[in-house]
Design a protein that fits this description.
The chain is of the alpha/beta class. Helices cover 61% and strands 15% of the residues. The chain folds into 3 domains: 200 residues; 150 residues, 2-Layer Sandwich (Alpha-Beta Plaits); 263 residues, TIM Barrel (Alpha-Beta Barrel). The protein is rod-shaped and about 195 Å long. The mean pLDDT is 88. It binds ligand C2E and calcium ion (2 copies).
Length: 655
């Protein structure tokens, strides 16, 4: 999770929280303004009721007074009874006021008391039979009281009205204030809503981008940017569904780079990465846009070809892909030769589902690799052999134990005089059912299944035992043994070889251990340590198949080698026009500069022999002198060649 994304999330949460607070405040304001308005209305209603009673009292006192005046004036319509009925009529309102009048209660009580007195006076006036003068004086006194009472009542009415007005004004001011607050709060909330929306939008966009990025990452290879295994698996299923619907097929390639590990190990991971990127580019440009190129890991790639249903089409595309892939790649100024082995498989026949498609392409790819075929199309018959290959491992284990493995020996001759100088031991498997098997039929299986150390130990013992037998027969024949790459990482190897040398009483200098460059590559430090120990024992060390791997000068220099064997692929070019001579000449010079003897392998004719000798090679090995022979034939061959002319290339007999 990126820091930016986390920050966005925090901002989004803050914005939502702020919006919530804003909304709560707004709601609070709304409640407050309703309450204030309700309170104001209640206050006004209360005051209005009080005012109503005051004005009732005012009115009733007025009516009472007028009735009294009419009565006193002798109005016929106003009887004594009429007057009596209106006396005290305002008492009810005044009583209500001093009970419910709130702030007016005190005033109402005082007025009520005064009114009580006034009513008493009136009643006396009505009841008594007094003379006119006295009655007039009392009436005037009552009228004065009535005027005072009325004035007080009127004042109260006025005061209440004022109070009501004040209340109304206050309530208006309050509601104005609240309204303004609500307006401001609404504005703030609106801004917050917008802010929130903006932040959420940004948050959502970044979340979506993040999701699509991680979707992309989950389905693509980080190094090359092409599809990865997950995406490929998905697309294979889709392509199969489409093929089923349309009645077509699906083609599939599995590619494995040849000698990628060597590039990675000799040049470093940076160059390995560059190579993989270059391969991804070449593959992508070699196929149509509807095909999918994927990297499955390491140096393994795949190409999915929807809609392909003819084997011939598939192979034609495969050739095109290989053509695009092969050739020198410039990796940051270093030229590296790119090549690959391609396994091809086809749905719906013979591969009936997605899993089979992958599995069959894998089988075909190994067949291509083993047979150096470039491309190989899966076929069921061949697959049965590959199944057989698996059983090879089990059988091989047994073969080592019961001694079905034997060594043939190929003579080497010293070019200076054409004399027999030693043999290279080459393994053969005398299989009880399948007859004599050659190394290429079982060594790869042994390498893949970790059987090489056991096999090598057994063969070393065989070779040294044979050395001892020849010596018993009167011939000292130095022997070379091929030691697989895996054995060189085995720190126990020098110790075991030392024991074997002692057991068979073989001088260390009569044993040559042949190793290939690839052995050096997986773990140079460990391999060099093992080699140094072997050299310490006095064993000779030969670098085999020189020139076929990514030879590194630094290994050549750091390894305690004694001999270099030029691979057959260069030897065969010696007699044809071209750079063959120059290459071997250069290798010989290099070897001599490093004080290594040179063995030229695969010498098949006298011309080749003569040229190799001219170029300075010290030893030769090849069918021209002899094929690998069973141990029992070596002595006869040796006797034969020393008694005949030894004319490998015009040598005259030196015997
Ligand atoms: P290598 O070590 O380069 O052995 C030489 C191979 O070239 C042998 O094949 C040999 O028969 C063949 N050869 C020799 N002279 C000529 C020639 O003039 N022309 C042609 N065309 N071929 C020639 P082989 O015996 O089939 O062995 C193949 C490879 O198997 C060997 O190549 C070596 O890498 C491996 N191998 C053989 N024996 C052993 C062994 O005992 N241990 C291990 N680890 N590998 C072995
Ligand atoms: Ca060899
Ligand atoms: Ca060789």
């Amino acid at each position: 999770m990126s820091l930016r994304w986390m920050r966005r999330r925090v901002v989004a949460r803050c914005a939502i929280a702020a919006l919530l607070i804003g909304l709560i405040l707004l709601a609070g304001l709304a409640v407050l303004s309703t309450q204030t308005a309700a309170r104001a209305a209640a206050g006004v209603a209360e005051r209005e009721l009080v005012s109503q009673h005051w004005s009732n009292a005012y009115g009733k006192i007025g009516v009472e007074y007028e009735t009294l005046t009419d009565y006193l004036r002798g109005d016929e319509e106003v009887s004594r009874g009429t007057l009596a009925s209106v006396i005290g009529s305002a008492a009810g309102d005044l009583r209500w006021l001093y009970v419910h009048g709130g702030s007016d209660a005190r005033r109402a009580r005082a007025l009520h008391n005064a009114y009580d007195g006034y009513s008493y006076t009136l009643r006396n006036l009505v009841d008594s039979e007094r003379d006119g003068a006295q009655e007039m004086a009392d009436a005037e006194q009552a009228a004065k009281s009535a005027a005072a009472l009325r004035k007080q009542a009127a004042d109260s009415v006025q005061r209440n009205d004022d109070e009501i007005n004040a209340l109304l004004a206050q309530s208006r001011r309050d509601s104005d204030r609240l309204l303004r607050a609500v307006e401001i709060m609404s504005g703030v909330d609106l801004v917050l809503v917008l802010l929130c929306a903006l932040v959420l939008l940004m948050y959502q966009t970044s979340t979506e981008r993040q999701a699509s990025e991680s979707r992309y990452r989950a389905s693509h290879d980080g190094l090359t940017g092409i599809a990865n295994r997950e995406l490929l698996t998905e697309r294979v299923k889709e392509a199969i569904a489409t093929a089923d619907r349309d009645g077509t097929g699906v083609g599939f390639f599995l590619l494995d780079l040849n000698r990628f590990k060597e590039v990675n190990d000799t040049l470093g991971h940076h160059y390995g990465d560059l190579l993989l990127q270059e391969v991804a580019r070449r593959l992508t440009s070699a196929v149509r846009a509807d095909s999918l190129v994927a990297r499955l890991g390491g140096d393994e790639f795949a190409v999915l070809l929807p809609g392909v249903h003819e084997a011939a089409d598939l192979l034609a595309i495969g050739d095109r892909v290989l053509h695009a892939l092969h050739g020198v790649a410039d990796l940051d100024g270093i030229a590296v030769d790119v090549s690959a082995s391609v396994g091809a498989a086809l749905y719906p026949r013979p591969s009936g589902n997605a899993a089979e498609l992958l599995q069959h392409a894998d089988v075909a790819m190994y067949a291509a690799k083993r047979g150096h075929l470039g491309i190989s199309l899966y076929d069921r018959d061949a697959d049965e052999h590959s199944f057989e290959r698996l059983t090879v491992v089990g059988e091989l284990r047994r073969a080592i134990a019961v001694g079905e493995l034997e060594l043939h020996y190929q003579p080497k001759v010293r070019m200076a005089d054409g004399r027999f100088s030693g043999v290279e031991s080459l393994v053969r498997w005398r299989h009880p059912v399948r007859g004599l098997l050659f190394p290429d039929q079982f060594i790869p299986a042994a390498e893949q299944s970790g059987l090489m150390p056991a096999l090598t130990d057994a063969l070393l013992a065989l070779a040294l035992d044979q050395y001892q037998r020849w010596r018993a027969d009167g011939r000292t024949i130095p022997v070379a043994v091929n030691v697989g790459a895996a054995c060189l990482l085995d720190a126990g190897l020098p110790g075991r070889i030392g024991l074997l040398l002692a057991r068979y009483d073989v001088p260390a200098a009569h044993l040559t251990v042949e190793i290939t460059e690839s052995a050096m590559i997986s773990d140079p430090a460990r391999a060099t340590a093992v080699l140094a120990e072997l050299r310490e024992l006095g064993v000779l060390l030969s670098i085999d198949d020189f020139g076929t791997g990514y030879s590194s000068m630094s290994y050549l220099q750091s390894m305690p080698l004694t001999e270099l064997k030029i691979d057959r692929q260069f030897t065969t070019k010696l007699t044809s026009p071209g750079s063959g001579r120059a290459i071997i000449g250069a290798i010989v010079e290099l070897a001599h500069a490093l004080e290594l003897a040179v063995v030229v392998e695969g010498v098949e004719d006298a011309d080749t022999y003569a040229i190799a000798r001219e170029l300075g090679c010290e030893y030769a090995q090849g069918y021209h002198m002899s094929r690998p022979l069973p141990a029992g034939e070596i002595l006869a061959w040796a006797a034969d060649q020393s008694s005949t002319s030894m004319a490998w290339a015009g040598h005259t007999s030196a015997a």
